[in-house]
Every structure is written in C-alpha cells, then in structure tokens.
Design brief:
72% of the residues lie in helices and 0% in strands. It has three helices and no strands. It is elongated, with a radius of gyration of 26 Å.
Length: 132
C-alpha cells in the first residue's frame, strides 16, 4: 500500500506520462504502416500527427523531470520511441536518395550530354575541347 506522498507523486507522474507516450507509440506504428503501404497521403498525415504527439510527450516529460523525475520504465520506452523515429527518418532519407537517383536517370539535367537528332552527342557550350 502506498503511504508516502513521494510514492503517490511517482504514481501520479507515471499515470500522467503514460497517455502522451502511448500516443507517440501509436503514431509511430501508424506511420510505419503508412510507409509500408506507400500511402503518401497517410504518410503526410501520420507524420504531422507524430510530430504533435512527440511535442506533447517531450513537454510532459520535461515538466516531470523538473518536478522530481521520470520513472525508469517510461524513460526507457521514450528512448525506444526516439530510436524508432531515428530509424524511420533514416529509412525515409535512403528512400528519398534512391528516388532522386532514379529521377536523375530518367530525367537528366539540361547540361548532361545527350544524343541530338543526328545521332551524335550534343556538345555543351563550354566543353573545354578545342576545335581545329
């Protein structure tokens, strides 16, 4: 049975932090599912919702840390969620880079050497070659 004020405060802090942390975990799962489905609209929506959930959780955790501390189990769950955010960010960066490379192959820049109507490569205006 909880008898001290500190024990009651710790229990109340844990209860207050559970909801925002659960919201972050839920949003991470939803974003992961949207990424798996390649659903651009859902990705955008879930990323925005995750951003809001993270901001609320960080605010609550910061306040709890200033007022006496965060229970270790919740701190560990927040760290795990942070790692998942970093992993999703890295996966998105890799996917974006791969998409950029594919676009560069399909749609070369104007300065790239391409074949002209006569079948020979068009020369850039400043190719650095000398013509005799």
């Amino acid at each position: 049975m909880l008898t001290t004020g500190a024990e009651m405060g710790a229990l109340q802090t844990a209860a207050e932090l559970e909801a925002p942390l659960a919201a972050v975990e839920h949003r991470l799962a939803a974003l992961g599912a949207a990424l798996h489905r390649n659903d651009a609209a859902a990705i955008e929506s879930e990323a925005t919702a995750l951003h809001g959930a993270l901001a609320a959780a960080i605010d609550n955790f910061s306040r709890a840390a200033r007022q006496g501390g965060v229970p270790p189990s919740l701190r560990q769950r927040l760290a795990l969620a942070s790692g998942q955010v970093a992993a999703q960010r890295e996966a998105l960066a890799r996917a974006t880079a791969a998409l950029d490379r594919a676009i560069d192959v399909l749609l070369p820049s104007r300065g790239a050497s391409i074949y002209g109507a006569g079948g020979s490569a068009d020369r850039a205006a400043h190719s650095g070659s000398l013509l005799a």
